[in-house]
C-alpha cells in the first residue's frame, strides 16, 4: 500500500511530529512496507487459531484495580520529577492547531 506525501504529512500532524522532506519520504517508504506486510498477514488462514491476547498463556495479569494497594506519597512521587511547581509535576505545553 503506497502512502502519499499528504497522508504522511497528516499522520505526522496527528502525532505532533515535525518532518522535513527527506524524513517524510523515508517514513512513507517504511510505513508502506509495513502495511504491505500486514496485508500479507491478513491473507493467512487463521480460522483454526484460537483468539489470544498473549503468546504465553500461563501468564496472568498481576494488576488488579479492585484491590487497593499502597501508593507513593506526594513527596516521594515528586522526588524524581525534572520540574515541579506547588506540589505538581510540570510538563511541556502541547502544541495544537491545524497542519501546515
Explain what the structure shows.
This protein has helices at residues 5-14, 21-42, 74-78; strands spanning 84-85, 88-89. It has 100 residues and is mostly helical. It is flat. The mean pLDDT is 84.
Q: What proportion strand?
A: under 5%
Helix content: 25-40%
Low-confidence stretches: none
> Could you say which structural class the secondary elements and strand pairing correspond to?
mainly alpha
Side by side, the strands of the main sheet go 1-2
Tally of strands: 2
Largest sheet: 2 strands, antiparallel
* Averaged pLDDT: 84
State the order of secondary-structure elements, H for helix, E for strand: HHHEE
What overall geometry do the principal axes of the alpha carbons give? flat
Concise synopsis of the structure shown:
This protein is mainly alpha-helical and 100 residues long. It is built from three helices and two strands, in the order αααββ.
List the helices and strands and how they pair.
Elements: H1 5-14, H2 21-42, H3 74-78, E1 84-85, E2 88-89
Antiparallel strand pairs: 1-2
Structure characteristics:
single chain, 100 residues, mainly alpha, two-stranded antiparallel ribbon
Amino acid at each position: 500500500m503506497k502512502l502519499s506525501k499528504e497522508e504522511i504529512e497528516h499522520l505526522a500532524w496527528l502525532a505532533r511530529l515535525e518532518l522535513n522532506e527527506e524524513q517524510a519520504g523515508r517514513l512513507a517508504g517504511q510505513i508502506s512496507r509495513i502495511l504491505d506486510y500486514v496485508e500479507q498477514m491478513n491473507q493467512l488462514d487463521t480460522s483454526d487459531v484460537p483468539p489470544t491476547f498473549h503468546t504465553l498463556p500461563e501468564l496472568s495479569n498481576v494488576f488488579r484495580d479492585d484491590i487497593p494497594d499502597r501508593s507513593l506519597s506526594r513527596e516521594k512521587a515528586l522526588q524524581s520529577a525534572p520540574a515541579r511547581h506547588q506540589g505538581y509535576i510540570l510538563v511541556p505545553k502541547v502544541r495544537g492547531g491545524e497542519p501546515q
